[in-house]
Design brief:
The complex is a heterotetramer of chains A (about 350), B (about 280), C (about 140) and D (about 325). Chain B is an alpha/beta fold and about 280 residues long. Chain B folds into two domains: about 90 residues, Translation factors (Elongation Factor Tu (Ef-tu), domain 3, Beta Barrel); about 120 residues, Nucleotide-binding domain of ferredoxin-NADP reductase (FNR) module (Rossmann fold, 3-Layer(aba) Sandwich), CATH 3.40.50.80. Chain B contains six helices and 15 strands. The longest helix of chain B is centred in the middle third of the chain and has 13 residues. Chain C has four helices and four strands. In chain C, helix 1 packs across helix 4. Chain C has one domain: Rossmann fold. In chain C, helix 3 links the parallel strand 3 and strand 4. In chain C, strands 2-1-3-4 form a four-stranded parallel sheet, with helices on both faces. The chains are: A alpha+beta (about 350), B alpha/beta (about 280), C alpha/beta (about 140), D alpha/beta (about 325). Chains in contact: A-B, A-C, A-D, C-D.
Chain lengths: ~350, ~280, ~140, ~325
């Protein structure tokens, strides 16, 4: 295992930024989000979860993929190339890494989404283990470990003065050797410290999960019979119908396609969309298969906890990052749904 | 040259436009160099692009046996269709497809077929119907029941009144919802007419498409007539954006209408949440 | 309407919403009286100054306007009796609000021009481009795509 | 505080039992300490779900839009804090609710706790419950430990400037009125006005660049009660979906302007914004200008008074020559 001194991080960032775009948690007006690093940027590696998940480096909120020109009856269409070259995602939390894996299943499944896949391949992901999970963290419910992201290219652990550094993939090895001069070998003591932190973080989340009854076992099966359940009648009523929960979610991937045109030219882009919005399923005819907020709230939970796992070998489209739990203005809480559905199952 | 994105349309030319009803036109679409933009099977769809107002999905109404073009019968109802209804012949549009699963043309070989269509719902059925006529020996008796609000609202009148009735071992039943001047044919709602005609379920597959309310009553009628749910096939339409199972809006439960559909048997629909 | 117009030979583009009953007629009068004024404005005829929604004004800025003018009947002379009294309040608030957002107030003007004031029409159409020329091209609310 | 909570439960149970109302809207508690959220109580025996604590921030009046239209002639009881009552009056003025069908129980409010202020100082550790005791907050931790902190330091900014903590509309007031000691609310606006145009624009451009267009600020707003919002129209398509700087600016300018003269300054827009855009300052700028130009006006205080932007005086001043 390697390590990098925190005082050398600035050098490391400069090196990485010279080799591509370096996205990492930056603080601006008190809001921490993944953004391209520039010299002097306020890096915040302490913040547990950025407001928006790092998915937006791979699947940006707005992304132009086509330009067009019209001339009388003539139409010209041209693809806009999606890849901006190399990039690094530095400090991705394990839950967010798992979120990227959830997106991978959708976008890399046949027919592969070319825009996503090229962007995904161009990136190297350095994950940062969590030492001190928040009370709203519930990643362990989905068999994830707060202290470690096995799918990242490099795993990092913050153990005080240094970040431990462990390459996990070929990309990670390549990166490691390219910044070899900034890294040192980690001591056995440091490795032990990281190990302890990993265990204690896992224990914290697991204890919370036990206390709150966040057990997802059987939730998918239970939900299959719960389309008409009373639960949804209760839950939707306070929903404001805003898109916070879906836009800040590391696994939400629904998008819309729209044109922007000026005179004879314009572009077509895709952008995040939310199943919480009435317009999401509204037909041009005025018909809407999900006419009220009840159907939309149900769709969100069903998609994450039932439909998605049915389509992808039981993998839940929730990674327990807790963003929606913290940010929903009216506290609609997916862990309460999990609890209630689990309860329904064991009761029946 | 980079690989082509699944979301990127090809340019195609609207070769001809035919006014079917006051608000429905049929567009014949070919590649800029002539010929079909792509091959398809009956029941499949395509995304038509009209920059700068966007893209929308439509079922292909021509049979794959028509070698030179694709036809789309389109109701004027939203921004894309408004645009389409304004253009003239020779205009270029974008096209992306084929999308969706299509009708089980192979599986139903040797069976009698009953097509029940309402209004614009004939559009996807027509692709299948003409395919059958072009492979007439593969299919048994063909019954076509088509209803529209008024005779003026009937699409593909040449097929309905001239071509299809001449086909061997084929019956065409036409009906309108209300009495109106100049119509001396049947006046009845399609589901009622269907029951009146007393089709028998033996060795028969029913394919139906039309407004949701018609489908609902047709399904009830067929049930009373002894058709089992796996003998009934329908095709759905939901708001779609990508057409390839990614954008996440056309799902009914775990099924995506754009890739798992739009063609479903009634048996499959019964397994799905009633959200369409 | 190229976004990248050269700054040195900058010609301000002004979108002018003119009330059908007064200011548009004032413009006509300026024309028939053969008064000359620079051709910077694109005139859009509206039934009343109160018809001008903030959406229109912002859209003009988005699509390349360097300035937006709303011209209506003098207060008290509204064809619909009270339209411009309402417009006066609403557009005053909007003008200050745009200033708060960082858009120079000179870029959004409201003038009362009656059907008989061809001279005033020509004057406004002459002065406004000059003020905006001094400010330079507007990029603030413009859609850069 | 406990007393008020008991009163709330009692009153809710009573009005449901007597059939005075079919639905009571109040607040209930979730699993986590900050979760106090809207509760919809339809049966007497459910009334014990209702709570009152210094985290009951969601404005309940807006729910009348959905509940009244769905329930036809039924009556609804609503617990209203000061800001909720202003919101109710605004809905009334906009003809979006019916006074006779709503029973209002007023709650004098001495300010609500901003969870992020507690978190910033690490006071959320093991926190289970927050109570108000006079000028102090009692922070109750898991192990039964208690900590007392000055309440004022942890209240929402919007509560510190609140001018109507005592409900202006109610059928029955629960509890003693609280003193009204608001801090100056236009400080933020005035500070921004000191900047020149370039700096103002960069300030807002930076703020808006974070916007993800979740529409929470619109959806939570008691003045945003249009049945079909201009931003959702397909035709004409005023607002595109791209998170372009110019589209974001369009959204925020129009959002604030559409509630001009109707914004009750409840600050819910700022509270719900996931990326902390200071949206309330936009609304306050408009309030300040209306006050300056057309006379002091507090939306939601008197539903009979005409809103400033739907009326006029023949000798109104204009702001067309200012620069």
């Amino acid at each position: 295992m390697k390590k990098v001194q925190k005082e050398k991080l600035e050098d490391l960032f400069e090196r990485l930024a010279g080799d591509g775009v370096l996205y990492l948690p930056l603080e601006e007006d008190g809001v921490v989000n993944f953004a391209p690093w520039k010299k002097g940027a306020r890096v915040n590696l302490e913040a547990l979860n950025t407001v928006l998940p790092p998915k937006r480096a791979i699947f940006p909120q707005t992304e132009t993929y086509m330009r067009f020109e019209t001339d009388g009856k003539k139409l010209q269409i041209e693809q806009v190339e999606p890849v901006e070259g190399n990039y690094f995602l530095f400090g991705v939390r394990p839950c967010d890494m798992a979120g990227i894996k959830v997106l991978d299943k959708v976008f890399l499944d046949e027919p592969e989404d070319d825009i996503y896949s090229r962007r995904r391949q161009a990136g190297t992901i350095l994950s940062l283990g969590c030492n001190d999970p928040h009370v709203s963290c519930f990643c362990s419910a989905f068999d994830l470990e707060p202290g470690f992201a096995p799918d990242a290219d490099v795993a990092l652990w913050d153990v005080g003065e240094v970040l431990l550094w462990k390459p996990l993939s070929e990309k990670g090895e390549k990166l490691t050797s390219s910044v070899e001069d900034l890294l040192e070998d980690a001591s056995a003591e440091e490795e032990r410290a990281a190990e302890e932190q990993r265990n204690s973080a896992a224990a914290t989340v697991a204890a919370a999960a036990r206390e709150h009854g966040w057990n997802v076992e059987g939730v998918e099966e239970a939900l299959q019979d719960m389309f008409e359940a009373e639960l949804w009648d209760k839950l939707y009523r306070r929903c404001l119908g805003c898109g916070i929960c879906t836009y800040i979610c590391p696994t939400c991937h629904c998008f819309d396609v729209e044109d922007f045109g000026k005179w004879q030219e314009g572009e077509r882009f895709r952008c995040w969309d939310s199943c919480m919005f009435e317009e999401f399923t509204l037909h041009a005819s005025g018909e809407n298969p999900r006419p009220t907020q009840k159907e939309r709230v149900r769709q969100r939970f069903m998609h994450k906890l039932c439909y998605y796992p049915s389509n992808f070998e039981g993998l839940y489209a929730c990674v327990g990052c807790g963003r929606c739990v913290r940010q929903c203005p009216v506290s609609i809480d997916i862990t309460q749904v999990i609890k209630e559905v689990g309860g329904v199952k064991s009761g029946s | 040259m980079a690989r082509k994105s699944t979301l990127l349309p090809e340019v195609a030319v609207v070769e001809s436009i035919r006014q079917e009803t006051p608000n429905i036109k049929t567009f014949r679409v070919v590649s800029p160099g002539g010929g079909k933009p792509f091959e398809h099977i009956p029941g499949q769809c395509a995304m038509l692009s009209t920059p700068p107002v966007g893209e929308a999905i439509f079922s292909i109404t021509s049979s794959p046996t028509e070698k030179e073009h694709l036809d789309f019968s389109i109701v004027q109802t939203g921004t894309v269709t408004n645009y389409l209804h304004e253009i003239e012949e020779g205009f270029e549009i974008g096209i992306r497809g084929p999308l969706g699963n299509g009708f089980p043309v192979e599986e139903v070989k040797g069976k009698d077929l009953l097509f029940i269509g309402g209004g614009i719902g004939l559009a996807p059925l027509r692709s299948f119907i003409n395919y059958c006529f072009d492979n007439r020996e593969d299919y048994g008796k063909i019954d076509i029941l088509y209803g529209a609000r008024t005779p003026d609202d009937m699409i593909q009148k040449k097929d309905l009144f001239e071509l299809w009735p001449q086909q061997p071992n084929t019956d065409v039943y036409l009906t309108v919802d209300k009495e109106c001047e100049g119509w001396d044919g049947k006046v009845a709602l399609a589901p009622h007419y269907c029951e009146e005609l007393a089709f028998t379920p033996e060795n028969k597959v029913t394919v139906t498409c039309g407004p949701p309310i018609m489908i609902k009553f047709v399904l009830e009628a067929l049930d009373r007539m002894g058709f089992t749910p796996d003998q009934v096939i329908t095709t759905l339409e939901l708001r779609m954006k990508c057409g390839v199972g990614k954008c996440g809006r056309c799902n009914i439960g775990e099924k995506y209408v754009c890739i798992d559909g739009p063609v479903f048997t009634y048996a499959q629909l019964l397994e799905m949440p009633p959200e369409y | 309407m190229s976004v990248a117009r050269e700054e040195h030979n900058f010609e301000p583009l002004i979108v002018a919403f003119c009330c059908n009953w007064c200011s548009y007629a004032g413009g006509d009068l300026a024309g028939t009286s053969r008064m000359s004024y620079p051709p910077n404005a694109r005139v859009i005829r509206v039934p009343c100054s109160s018809r001008v929604s903030p959406n229109f004004i912002l859209r003009a800025f988005q699509r390349g306007a360097d300035g937006v003018l709303v011209a209506g009947c003098h207060p008290g002379d509204c064809h619909y009796i009270t339209g411009n009294y309402h417009a006066r309040r609403r557009l005053s608030i909007l003008r200050r609000f745009l200033g708060f957002m960082g858009v120079e107030p000179e870029r959004f003007e409201v003038h009362w021009i009656s059907a008989s004031e061809g001279g005033k029409f020509a004057e406004v159409m002459t002065e406004m481009p000059e003020k905006i020329r001094a400010l330079g091209p507007n990029r603030k609310l413009r859609d850069a795509r | 505080m406990k007393n008020l909570q008991d009163t709330i439960r009692e009153i809710a149970a009573q009005s449901l039992a007597r059939g005075e109302v079919e639905l009571v809207i109040g607040w209930e508690k979730g699993d986590l300490w900050w979760q106090s959220y809207p509760a919809f109580i339809e049966e007497e025996k459910e009334a014990d779900r209702l709570i009152w604590d210094p985290l009951c921030v969601p404005n309940l009046s807006r729910y009348l839009l959905q509940e009244l239209s769905e329930m036809d002639e039924k009556k609804i009881a609503l617990f209203v804090k000061g800001c909720d009552a202003l919101a109710f009056n605004q809905l009334l003025q906009d003809n979006r609710t019916v006074r006779e069908r709503v029973v209002l129980y007023g709650i004098p409010c001495d300010g609500l706790v901003d969870p992020s202020k507690l978190e910033r100082e690490g006071l959320d550790r093991d926190l289970q419950e927050v109570e108000r005791d006079g000028e102090e907050l009692v922070l109750k931790a898991a192990a039964g430990e208690e900590k007392r902190v000055p309440a004022k330091d942890y209240l929402y900014d919007k509560c510190l400037t609140c001018r109507y903590p005592n409900p202006v509309a109610y059928d029955q007031m629960l509890g003693e009125t609280v003193p009204v000691e608001p801090e100056e609310r236009f400080t933020g606006v005035r500070k921004l006005e000191e900047l020149d145009y370039e700096d103002r624009f960069s300030y807002w451009a930076e703020q808006f660049s974070r916007c993800i267009r979740c529409f929470a600020c619109r959806n939570v707003c008691p003045a945003c009660s249009c049945i079909k919002c201009v931003f959702d129209l397909q035709e004409p398509r005023w607002l595109g979906k791209a998170t372009e700087p110019s589209e974001n600016a369009f959204y925020h300018i129009i959002r604030a302007y559409h509630v001009a003269g109707r914004c009750v300054d409840c600050g819910e827009c700022s509270r719900v914004c996931p990326v902390d855009i200071p949206l309330q300052e936009l609304n306050r700028k408009i309030i300040l200008d209306i006050n300056e130009l057309y006379g002091e006006y507090d939306a939601g205080v008197d539903p009979e008074q005409e809103a400033p932007l739907i009326t006029y005086k023949t000798d109104d001043p204009a702001a067309f020559t200012e620069s």
